[in-house]
């Protein structure tokens, strides 16, 4: 994929999460994708990650990826952003992140997600 195609892919991917379109997210991953999080040092499968996203979509409305800063490199991209949304109790939350995606055949084969654990705890609270 050339740089323009990778940029368009990244935009579609994060736009899909904003819109709660987990099917598009699932289709953006290779079947053997690994999704790693720095805060728990675990690697999720595609289906585990989709389940996590479905839970987040159910708990957080008005999702938006603010301050997207995307850099493309051969074989993938890095994006920094702040995911903002509203919890069921009406409180606003934000989650700054850095995501490194390595791609294979036009899909994400490895996603490494760097989040602040304190922000993750607030973001995951349910009311």
Produce a short descriptive summary:
Helices cover 36% and strands 47% of the residues. The chain is an alpha+beta fold and 127 residues long.
Overview of this structure, please?
The chain has helices at residues 3-19, 22-28, 46-59, 117-124, and strands spanning 29-37, 42-44, 60-73, 76-87, 92-104, 107-115. The protein has 4 helices and 6 strands; from the N terminus they run H-H-E-E-H-E-E-E-E-H. With 127 residues, the chain is an alpha+beta fold. The protein has a 6-stranded mixed sheet. The relative contact order is 0.19. The model has no long low-confidence stretch (mean pLDDT 92). Helix 1 (3-19) packs antiparallel against helix 2 and helix 2 (22-28) runs antiparallel to helix 3. The chain is globular, with a radius of gyration of 14 Å. The N and C termini lie far apart (43 Å). It has one domain: Nuclear Transport Factor 2, Chain: A (Roll).
Key phrases:
alpha+beta; 36% helix; 127 residues; 4 helices; Nuclear Transport Factor 2, Chain: A; 6 strands; six-stranded mixed sheet
Question: How is this fold's topology laid out?
Answer:
Elements (H helix, E strand, L loop, with lengths): L2 H17 L2 H7 E9 L4 E3 L1 H14 E14 L2 E12 L4 E13 L2 E9 L1 H8 L3
Parallel strand pairs: 1-6
Antiparallel strand pairs: 1-2, 3-4, 4-5, 5-6
Helix pairs in contact: 1-2, 2-3
């Amino acid at each position: 994929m050339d740089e323009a195609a990778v940029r368009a892919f990244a935009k579609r991917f994060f736009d899909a999460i904003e819109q709660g379109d987990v099917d598009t997210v699932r289709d953006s991953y290779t079947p053997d994708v690994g999704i790693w999080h720095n805060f728990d040092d675990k690697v999720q499968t595609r289906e585990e990650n989709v389940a996590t996203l479905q839970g987040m979509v159910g708990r957080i409305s008005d999702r938006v990826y603010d301050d997207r800063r995307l850099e493309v490199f051969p074989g993938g991209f890095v994006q920094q952003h702040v995911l903002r949304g509203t919890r069921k109790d009406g409180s606003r939350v934000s989650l700054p992140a850095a995501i490194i995606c390595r791609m294979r055949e036009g899909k994400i084969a490895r996603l490494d997600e760097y989040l602040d654990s304190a922000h993750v705890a607030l973001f995951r609270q349910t009311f």
